Amino acid sequence: MGIRDLVASPGEVKSRPERRWFVIGGFFLLLFLLLVGRLYVLQIVDYKKSVAQVAANSLRPSTIPASRGLILDRNGRPLVNNVTTVEIRLSREQAILNPTIKGSLASLTGQSVAQINDDLNNQQYDPYQPAPVLTDAPANEVEYIKLHPAEFPGVSVLDVSRRSYPFGGDVGSQILGYVGPINNYELAAHPHDGYQTDSTIGKAGIESFYEQYLRGHDGTSTIEVNSNGQVIGTLHTTQPRVGDSVVLNIDAGLQKALDGYLASDIAHVRQTPDPRSGVLPPALNGAAIVLDPNTGAVLAMSSYPSYNLSSFVNGLTESAFKHLLAVGAFNNYAIQGLYTPGSTFKLITATAQLQTGILSPDALVDDTGTFKVPNCRNVVNHGCVFHDDETFGNGEVDLTSALTKSSDYYFYNLGYLFWSQQSRYGQTPIQNVGQEYGLDNYTNVDLPNEVEGRVDSPAVRRVLHAEAPKAFPNVSWYTGDNIEMAFGQGTTALTPIALANAYATFANGGTRYTPEVAAAIINAHGQTVIRYRPRVLGHVRLPASVRNPILQGLEGVVESPNGTAYSTFHSIVNFSLSSFPIAGKTGTASNGNQKEPNSLFVGFGPVGHPKYVVLCVIAQGGYGADAAAPVVAETFNYLVAHPIGPVKLKAQLTSPTTTTTGQNTTTTTIK
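Structure (tokenized):
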């Protein structure tokens, strides 16, 4: 049997063509249904997503930076404003298509091709916008580009806004702060605020603290690009809105004068041997502050060493930046410096003395110049004998004369009395008063990176030891520690702003305000958006029985021939101290290890109705009367000759105003 016996012949098999057509038709029907389903998904289900993807492939949003608001002094004078400069930009696309453009542009501007390549590759700039290759372009170069456009395809000239400093970039630098390109950390910290990789942001001072108002609202420009990323045209533009301006409590004239007094004084101190040690004080750094004690307004604030803000606009070299960083020029020592207060702390101890009644203000203490701790057998840390800074005693002194003459012995005795009677007054009566004055808390001044001070105590000693056992090896608290703390030594370290605010609290009768640098926020139309009112942080009990004896002692510092600052003030001031009396306190704080002491002076006046509190501190500057007091005396010369007037706000009639008072916000109308 062969193969043909197994397979039927064609004639014997029935033909079924409809089966073939059914299979073929079913296949194409399935393809059609799949196509319809896909179209349904694209056109109906994923319609919005598809449109967004198409737009993303062809449309690119671009940011139009808003001009920053101004920073004005209390009289409406610009401390920081904007100037329009000309910027030359180059299209990345044209630079790729016509590489010779970079050479032509380099020849015109005096730059190298490598510099232009760096600008084009800078990730800070929007990749779909021309990259800036020259800022503050000279007029002749701009004119040449405009007259020869064919030679510079892809090159554009743009007016841009930059920061300018009418009073000079070296006036109030640490207060004003500066702006700079946003970094990745800052960009991540503001994910929903509209910042771009090429945005600028406030980096320090007022520029940073009030960034949300100063920056304004950027505009947007939507450009169309093809599949190769080439720009076709602009479809839509939203104009930017200029930022609000910040009006400060700062007086520009006073600020400039204070900056000069502090810098000149430190230069003089560095060239003048200490009259007692014979050493040239290094005067490492310093700060000076002027406060309105009745509101907390910061009228001026200086820090040394400093820097010129214009350098951040014109370009700061890496070596210059490293030098400024090394010397601490970017620190605002008024709010970030920590200084042992020395005798300026005696205000706190005297307040505790009279509040508790541990010693009558009229009680006489025989200041022999050498204080021996009664029944002392423990020589740990301090021993049993404490010496006055002077080589001789002051004889019998009461509280008033002890402050005037700055008798250490008197306050040694108070430190001993409080510790020996802790069963009655507790372990920390002096520290408790220091807390009322706000010395170990933030003042909440409206500037970034304020540092918190500390008043030495058993608890503080334990914390410091736990954090740095080698630097602070002593954990226990002895009588000698309490004695040192009572006259402003030990590990007590205060910021100048906190110490100035404590004296402002005393000067006004006991109300502690938040120091305020800013007075108001106003918009581009001159309307007041926010008016900052005095904020009360706390109170110190200062009835007449407490305040008057202390005040008399502080007046004597300047007015009495026995006062520690009498000679300084009477040789410097050019006004009548009887018409404008000043009260104050010197401070000479030991730094140990044969270092020159910190020099401090705080003064306020006029005594009857104080308008100003002025503080100066110089690290390792020598004696308070020699280094710090002259700055305060010169500042009062300026204040008497140029009284500070009220804040001037430009506002339209019936303009809506938001007034901020403490934590409460109310809407009012200016009439």
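Residues 1 and 512 are 122 Å apart (CA to CA). The two ends are 122 Å apart (CA to CA).
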